[in-house]
Amino acid sequence: MKNLIKILATVVVLGLPAISFACDYPERPKLPDGGTAAKEDMIAAQSSVKEFLAAVDDYLSCIEKQEKDAIAALDSPDEETLKRRDELLSKRFDAANEEKFLFGEQWNLEVRAYNAHRATEKSE
Fold first, then answer.
1. How far, CA to CA in Å, does 36 sit from each of 39, 53, 115, 120, 124?
2. Closest Cα partner for 63 from 84, 20, 85, 92?
3. CA distance 71 to 82
């Protein structure tokens, strides 16, 4: 079923090249409390974390392509315009990469809390 959806999505995207799609920033998944979460919740969250990080990478690729397309559409842009656009793109990249880092750190804290809680349960 997933393959069918991917194929249909590809056909739609290739069949409508004139439509410009916006690059949507992915929604950050909610993380379970590692100190109280069940193993199943942590495993599910791990998948969500990986999907989110991959989606941020897709977002970065999208905004980079969108910017290249926008610059290509400009009629003889001057150096100042190109510099300003590059600075804005860099800021967007930096913000998204910072979010990935902070989210990864938050996930690591929850994993450590989960492991500490499990160790405490085993010693009792």
1. 10, 24, 10, 12, 16
2. 92
3. 8
pLDDT digits over 51-93, tens only? 999 999 999 999 999 999 999 999 998 999 999 999 999 999 9
Residues 29 and 46: beta-carbon distance below 8 Å: no
Closest CA to 100 of 43, 29, 37, 33: 29
The closest alpha carbon to 31, from 121, 100, 111, 119, belongs to: 111
The confidence score (pLDDT) of residue 2 equals 53
d(CA 54, CA 103): 13
In single-letter form, the type of residue at position 57 comes to D
Distance, CA of 46 to CA of 49 (rounded, Å): 5
**Contact yes or no for 56/96 (Cβ under 8 A):** yes
pTM of the complete model: 0.75
CA-CA distances (angstroms) from residue 77 to 71, 93, 94, 123?
Answer: 8, 22, 24, 67
